[in-house]
Automatic annotation (TrEMBL):
A GO MF term: oxidoreductase activity
The keyword RNA-binding appears for this protein: no
Top-level taxon of origin: Bacteria
InterPro entries found in the cross-reference section: NAD(P)-bd_dom_sf, Sc_DH/Rdtase_CS, SDR_fam
Oxidoreductase among keywords: yes
Organism: Pseudooceanicola nanhaiensis
Official protein name in the record: Short-chain dehydrogenase
Family: Belongs to the short-chain dehydrogenases/reductases (SDR) family.
Keyword line: Oxidoreductase
Length: 246
């Protein structure tokens, strides 16, 4: 059964070329939404309800281009899912070059801020509310060693989410964050490799659901948070991690 209130609406998905973003694009299309996915990489897009835009979302121009594409092609913006993110170099704090710290913060925090600001401006102009889902991480609850920039950036996502939730709740814009555990994507494969190279092993077998997630399992929760089924949910930070945090 289709989720309530999604069909026909327009969603922006950042980082939509692969991983969780690509799974989200597929799920939102299956729910009948029209989708603009934006990524630094080209995305293969098909059909008359999906437009892929090549854009660096850590820049104002990139975020504006994503919104403009949605307005021009589909007439507006009702939802935003911010999946664009990078992990960065794995080094302890005292060895990490500041440029590497800045690179992660630029995409994961500045980029998310810019995407939200551009989408919210359009939603306010339309006066029809909206819904935003920001992708944080289990790393906002539990720090991985060697990941100071990534861990910090994922804590900052909660701050971006909560601030937007209080600022735009009265305008009918709901803003939530999700905190995925380990998901089968290129990013997690790389993270596992660098962690084991540093002598730190990810042990999924000790978790209540003893495996990593498929990106489609994350996309399903995102779609629900965008839907009318979640009409009273805002400012939430939802772990979707197979019980890893309990
Ligand atoms: N994979 C996991 O285990 C996991 C767990 C928790 C949270 N997350 C978060 O989920 C999000 C998606 O992760 P993923 O695993 O799908 O990663 P991924 O590397 O497969 O996909 C990320 C996408 O973001 C794009 N991107 C990076 N910088 C960009 C920029 N400046 N502008 C536009 N696009 C840009 C990349 O090109 C890529 O397509 C990230 O924010 C990540 O931190 C992932």
């Amino acid at each position: 059964m289709a989720l309530e209130g999604l069909s026909g609406k327009v969603a922006l998905v950042t980082g939509g070329a692969q991983g969780i973003g690509a799974a989200t694009v597929r799920r939102l299309l299956a729910e009948g939404m029209r989708v603009v996915s934006a990524d630094v990489q080209p995305s293969r897009h098909e059909g008359d309800r999906w437009l892929g835009v090549e854009a660096d979302l850590a820049t104002e121009a990139g975020a504006a281009a994503m919104v403009e594409a949605a307005v021009t092609r589909f007439g507006g913006v009702h939802a935003l899912v911010t999946c664009a993110g990078i992990r960065g170099t794995a080094l302890p704090i005292h060895e990490l070059p500041v440029a590497d710290f800045d690179a992660v913060m630029t995409v994961n925090v500045r980029g998310m801020f810019l995407s939200m600001a551009a989408a919210i401006r359009q939603m306010l102009a339309q006066k029809s509310g909206g819904a935003i889902v920001n992708i944080s991480s289990l790393n906002a609850r539990r720090a991985n060693p060697g990941r100071v920039a990534y861990n910090s950036s994922k804590h900052a996502v909660i701050g971006l989410t909560n601030t937007a939730a209080v600022e735009y709740g009265p305008d009918g814009i709901r803003v939530n964050a999700i905190l995925p555990g380990s998901v089968n994507t290129g990013m997690s494969a790389l993270a596992d490799q660098t962690c084991s190279a540093a002598g730190w092993r990810m042990d999924y077998t000790q978790r209540p659901i003893p495996r990593t997630a498929d990106p489609a399992e994350i996309a399903g929760f995102i779609a629900w948070l965008l839907s009318d089924g979640a009409s009273f949910q805002t400012g939430g930070a939802y772990e979707i991690d197979g019980g890893a945090t309990i």
